[in-house]
Amino acid sequence: DVNSGMINVRGLEIPKIEEMCLEAEDICKREGVEGVAVIGNYLFPNAVSVSGSDYALSLVSDLATQSGGKAKRLKVAGAFHSPLMAGASVALRRVLVGVPIADPLIPVYSNVTGYQHSQSTELTELFCQQLQMSVRWQSLIENMIDEHGKDLEFYEVGPSRQISAMIAQIHRPSRRRTKATDSGPKL
Fold it and tell me: What angle do CA 126, 128, 129 make, to 5 degrees?
């Protein structure tokens, strides 16, 4: 097992962050250290979460800061949405094989593709892939708005306003159509 986690990186172009991940992995390889650094979540313009091994994440964090970006460690228990979750993906697939899943009656969007899917067999596979593949959050929200119109309403479940804040970063007009399901402050 490798100590792993995630960091948020903001304020840099996505291709630059992708290069930093590759550079961190290359440094790890040259030093003989197991190193994984991949974008785990494409959140909104110029903001991602990077998943990986602790050492590779520290390298990405340093590179981001040196390039004028901001990096912050997330309080999570692992490198979600990365190759380090392959074992969990296999275990989930074993469980889901025996679970009957019907085709959805409402639109279901995949974190893996950012698009709507309607076949239960396809969704089952995507559920397993999402553990080790990048989340395409920005694409998902953009596609929902494109496919269902600019009057689409979003509902945020729970006390946090992170989803609402990310939607506002992706499509500013939608912030007025994001509803909280609790009594906390609204955006």
Answer: 60
Residues 114 and 130: their CA atoms lie apart, in Å, by 11
Cα–Cα distance measured from residue 18 to residue 67, given in angstroms and rounded to the nearest whole number: 13
C-alpha distance from residue 78 to each of 7, 51, 56, 97, 142 (Å): 11, 8, 13, 25, 28
**Residue range 42-54: average pLDDT?**
96
Q: Among 7-11, 81-85, 87-91, 150-154, which stretch is predicted with the lowest mean pLDDT?
A: 150-154
Contact between residue 57 and residue 50 where contact means Cβ atoms under 8 Å apart: yes
Sign of CA dihedral 52, 55, 60, 62: positive
Stated pTM of the model: 0.88
Gyration radius (Cα) of the chain, Å: 18
Q: How far apart (Å, rounded) are the C-alpha atoms in residues 88 and 18? A: 24
Q: What is the dihedral of CA 140, 70, 172, 156, to 10 degrees?
A: 60
- The answer to whether 167 touches 145, Cβ cutoff 8 Å, is no
Tokens of 38: 């991949």
Task: Summarize pLDDT for 113-164 with one digit per residue, the tens.
Answer: 999 999 998 999 999 999 999 999 999 999 999 988 877 888 888 767 788 8
Q: What percent of the chain has pLDDT over 70?
A: 95
